[in-house]
What does this fold into?
Amino acid sequence: MHFSVAIVGAGVAGALLAHELARAGHRVLLVEAGPAGRARVDLVGDYALAAVKTPRSSYRDNQPPSPVKSPDSEDDYAQTGPSKFKSTYLRRVGGSTWHMLGNMPRLVPADLRLHSRYGVGVDWPLGYDDLEPWYGEAEHALGVAGDHRALDGLHGARRSRPFPMTRIWPSYGDLVVERAVVGLQVHGIPVELISTPQARNSRPYDGRPACAGNSSCVPICPIGAKYDGSVHVRKAVAAGAVLWDRAVVTRIDLDRTTGRVRALRYTRWDEAGARRKGSVAADLYVVAAHAVETPRLLLASRDPDAAPAGVANGSDQVGRNLMDHLQGQGATIVAEPLHPFRGPPTTVGIDCFRDGAFRARHAAFRLSIGNDGMGRSETPYAALGRLVDAGLIGTDLRTALRDRLSRQFRISYSTEMLPRPGNRVTLADGPADEFDVPRAELAMTLDDYNRQAFAKALAVVSAVFDRLGAPDGERKMQKEETYSGAGHIMGTTRMGQDPSNSVIDRDCRAHDHDNLFIVGAGAFPTGGTANPTLTVAALALRAARTVSTLLRTGP
It folds into this structure.
């Protein structure tokens, strides 16, 4: 069977592309390495039964009693350091949006002009005005709830279109913190709370219910109020797209005369251990397989004649400039009850430090006000154990536990990384995976640009704690060496105007192969401080227009 377009990866980027192209009348194949998934209620149950609670606890590799592993496992990649890369991802229909928090901020204009403004990083081949209408399209496609007036013009990021839904309501604790920080300045910048746009419904939208405040967005929304990529996979299939789940694309074949992509090789699998290999052809191809799996596939598709360094890698940039948002947090007990654990894990943040002249010296950062107590620093179960160890029982224990949990508080911070060519994805030596694809190997170095931002962010956290009356003995501040990953993996197939130092152009079209598009967060030349999903969606919708035009008119 021949398709108009074959899309590798059924996460948010691939799903949006498939839907847009299918409803435009094109023959679309959507190929996903992972499974289509089980019923949402079963995934919620898997998390409840998991002995270890992680963001991936709802998503088991395969069903017992089969011992065969799926392509999704805890051993995603090898690492060479010297610093630790700490983010993982899901390989399944819908992608990592299943266990994302759901925050949907836009990049701000300076994020796309980092080198021009501050002399660090690189500039995007697109400006904010190029992306702005697509941000509006993406917000309506995903269903983003937000405060249009508050966010219009934030750090110069104008908005031409309201959100499809009003903001998610603030928690009681948000209101307490908002009052406490009135008049606060840190690093010479006024500290203010602002509503965080989120891909969760503040009212019924697009056939999905309003958020019920279960506070379990990570790892899974139990009612589907939070968006995930499977929403648009279902829409794409309803519009005529063909979905192959459990189909691992193992190689991209090139025409050695023209340099164009001529086929995808794949292996279909099931939990019983069956394997079936094949190839499929299309007029145009899109790789939207995530910022680790995409370069892995491109590099594994080396052709000694047509692509000796890997597909789309004439610039030697495939896999380079790996980025994440490096995170930390502070947690404490405050003086006044905040009554956390009601509503989403976060609804407001501190965006004042997302841009400024300081970016010439250290990374920008964004802070989120937590609504989940002390987060991982002290869970309710840990608080209970602490009080039991102190000898409390009965009514005294209940009273003390109620009081402590009501006053738990957390602030997390997320810092941008600069693109560094040595931070990269390569192919690991040693055994390949179950599908004979070399494993990915990641190298990352943490630099002073981030270390300085960690210190600056912790100063903001401390100042807010002061305003809330947090005692010194209760403050738990995450140390630099224990930074966390955000799951925001970016930069490994970056876009640019110059084919010598980028992989794709401003339309996400590969410089080296005119019938290949590469879409996703790997396209980002810089990472800014915005969660990447909304920008990924905007770029995917923009690329869909280009792909559809090419399919109608030819290259």
About this structure: The two ends are 22 Å apart (CA to CA). Residues 533-553 form the longest helix (21 residues). Residues 62-74 have pLDDT under 50 and may be disordered. The chain is about 25% helix and 15% strand.
